[in-house]
Protein 1
Amino acid sequence: MTATTAGRLFAVDWGDKRIGLAISDELGMLASPAGVIARRAGKRPPIAELMRQAEERGATGYVFGLPLDPSGSETDRTREVREVAAKLAARQPLPVRLVDERFTTSSALRSIREQGGSTRGRKADVDAMAACVLLESVLRATSQGVELGEPVVAAVESGRN
């Protein structure tokens, strides 16, 4: 996923209850919300479902939001996202990048309100929009020749996920 890579990027905004998704157009200019995947407490991460949805949309790479705290430090959620991204990288050939996602949810909320919408009862929309905000920042940087984030190295899996 460099400035010269063409194709659709699939963005993932990892949450406790929902995973927000977004997809870019093939030219890497536009990002669109692509729904959410519901998570169940105590269950394995839905890596196979992420792969299915990315393949269904013709993705050529993944962008995971890296949930750092406001000061930029890592948290338990950050470590969880790093682990899931590494497992995903091990299970399929597409590149996976981690990109700082601080303030994407607040940007998504602001964007919905600015468009005259209410965020009440629309948590899934907000999660998908947060993934879209993340993806837009990656696309904007890429169009300027800047590569955001860090590539993910595939994890060596000892069991199935």
Protein 2
Amino acid sequence: MIDSTAVTWEASDAAHPARRAARLSMATVAAGRKEDWLGLFTPDALVEDPVGPSMLDPGGKGHRGHDGIRRFWDDNFGSAQGFHFRVRDSFANGPCCANVTTITVTLRGGTTMKVDCVIIYTVDDAGLITSLRAHWEPDRALATLTTP
């Protein structure tokens, strides 16, 4: 079940395997359940968050496989105190789902940051995520930092 305090879904809710995987991904991240999140991915999955070179991925090649995705979690999600996902729109077709989302990240000490993004989830025939591609601009997100 999706925690309604962690995920606000304002978009189409029509059944689709990639949409289901996206919702589960957001819920497990918000709940801090790393191993459950990793279990949503194929063994060779690719996470690009954000897509291209950034301070989170200087080489811009993404994080591949469970080991790479686990390191991504530890390096980035592990320092967050909480997440809230607000999905304003969702487009699902083929093996993909693209969600127009705002993620509010609460860091230790109560500082918050809003990340406006489009996240594209692609799944295999079993509904496991083969790629997660988050399109967002780090400078825009950093400009939203608010301290308590």
Protein 3
Amino acid sequence: MNPSDIRAETIRRFANWQIKANENLPLIESLTDLQPKSSAQVAARATAAGYLAAFCFGAPAEKVHKDIMCFQLWEHLSAEEQSLLSNPDADGQSKASHGWLVEAIQFMAWSLGLVTLDNFAQCSDDLSSHFSKAGTDPSQFIASARLRPLSELLQEADTLYMLHWYAVEASLQGTPDKRILLPRISFRRHAADWIVGVADQWDDISLDT
């Protein structure tokens, strides 16, 4: 899990995708500077985020809030997400923005070995089927969750970091790559950085490029 080896693999991937890599981006932090999340933390976070995404796509706020509290998932929402769910009359733009959480959930599902990952494609149509059914106790799912090896998670975190940089730069230059949606990449990078432990809290993750 040498950061240089991880970066070399990221650059190899970019060559295969025929995308110019920025080899000057800082390397991912060393393991001594990271605090990777546990399998249970990721599974609980993904489950809680799924409820919030459902709210953003039209599920009744009262029902979503009730289930989250019943299954002790409230603490696995960020402060901003808690505020949104506590305000069911939130404007549509805020809901639309948080609706992109499904892409973060896609990455978390991949990290748990539940789905494949293609950063050029939208989240799986059957993504929710890989988690406990809405309204049912997710405790067994959370307890039995297992993460992929940390080396794989770090590799995807570095890949998403460089993809995010590339997407931002392309957008600024007015030449966006149609294969890459910036919101998708930024939400997946957010999830990846949180899982590998770049920061402890979801809201503390910096998406600087």
Protein 4
Amino acid sequence: MAIEASGLGRDIDDRAILDGVNLRVPEGAFISILGPNGAGKTTLLHILATLTRPTRGDLRLLGQPVSRATVRGLRCRIGMIGHQPMLYRHLSARENLHMFGRLYGLTNVGNRADALLEKVGLLDRGDDAVATFSRGMVQRIAIARALMHEPALLLADEPFAGLDVASMRALEGLLQSLHAAGKTIFMSSHDPAQSLRLAQRVLVLRCGTLIANCPTEEVDPDLLVRALE
């Protein structure tokens, strides 16, 4: 299992942001979790990225229990795309990837960066400053950054937010190719139709509690939309 969570909870100021979340995500799966604003999606993604500690419950990632002893090693096997791209705008796309590759101690930084620039369709813009890129291009470089260390698990927190239609289609194709290559993808989203199109399984989070967990082929789109209202 890429993700195993049992009774996972997170409290802030005596308020339950997550409450009793149970998850089993096999390696190689593409999961989309939906929910309205404030449902707890970002908190869950941060816990899965080992950036936030749960208040209660048990969590295993990539076959290992999450603890102080394992968290550093786990972070080297997890890629995260958050609301912020985590890129230096004054540096070029290639310079950003080189820097993050060195932070992970990679020895083949140059080859790895160029391979990822080609994968995300920006090899010809590799020497341009990130500040000159569109929102969609920045998001593609952010994905390349998250993949520099070849993570086994890719977490994506609403990666399509703010993208135009063309950029959305390009990013959808990229995520589909990563899934086809065997990556485990766990993505939060606001878009039911897109989630049903991309993911193998859809989860719905409301007020910190999972209220649905179904294979996409078994989901009634109309019921899913109403569950998110």
